[in-house]
């Protein structure tokens, strides 16, 4: 059993965060969940009122998933994931807003998600960033480049058309599966390309 931080920030694509938590839990991993206030607003608009608070997020999962989640409050800079002494195997920010990308690229640890990302980088642990914006400005690209330079994996939520996805769920599973690949975690969320 490994332990992963799942950070959810206010970009579009909240269903990706839900599927990410489910996938890690189903693989038997422990999840340190942290959700920004921007994410709660976006999630309420995209997924409904049952995602309007962090506690409601956790409660929306079935018991077997909920049991694997520890919720960190966004304003709690004294939470466990704010310290490098708390051991985790990696962190994913899914989806990741440009505001959060900018903050992390500047070393600005002013909420629990940003601080956890800063800690993940300084401890040289895997950090996967799933940035969602379109188009990217030069500022966005520069900030993402800074994160890539210090070892973060920049994994944009882009479908693999060559796998002929039949539904949005298949696309979402592909993106979540790519995050699991970045963590080197075996899964069968999508069929791998086997050549022609
Ligand atoms: C419905 C909705 C969709 C949004 N989509 C994006 C997005 O795709 N990318 C982005 O960078 N910001 C997006 N935003 C703006 C962010 O939520 C906003 O910049 C927020 O301050 C991000 O803060 P956070 O990173 O702390 O969550 C969206 C906001 C709303 C309400």
Description:
The chain has helices at residues 14-26, 37-47, 54-59, 63-66, 98-105, 112-122, 138-149, 168-182, and strands spanning 3-8, 30-35, 69-72, 90-96, 127-131, 153-154. It has 196 residues and is α/β, with parallel strands linked by helices. The protein has one domain (3-182): Rossmann fold. α1 packs across α8 and α5 packs across α7 (138-149). The longest helix is centred in the last third of the chain and has 15 residues, at 168-182. The mean pLDDT is 97. The protein binds flavin mononucleotide.
Topology:
Elements: E1 3-8, H1 14-26, E2 30-35, H2 37-47, H3 54-59, H4 63-66, E3 69-72, E4 90-96, H5 98-105, H6 112-122, E5 127-131, H7 138-149, E6 153-154, H8 168-182
Parallel strand pairs: 1-2, 1-4, 2-3, 4-5, 5-6
Bound molecules: flavin mononucleotide.
Flavin mononucleotide (FMN) binds next to helix 2 and helix 5.
Q: What molecules are bound to this protein?
A: flavin mononucleotide
Largest sheet data: 6 strands, parallel
Helix/strand class? alpha/beta
Overall pLDDT confidence: 97
In the CATH hierarchy, what is the class? Alpha Beta
**Roughly how many Å is the radius of gyration?**
16 Å
Beta content comes to 15-25%
Corresponding CATH superfamily? Flavin prenyltransferase-like
Which architecture per CATH? 3-Layer(aba) Sandwich
What is the CATH T-level topology?
Rossmann fold
Helix residue percentage: 40-55%
Estimate nothing, just give the exact number of structural domains: 1
- pLDDT < 50 runs, ≥5 residues: none
Strand order of the largest sheet: 3-2-1-4-5-6
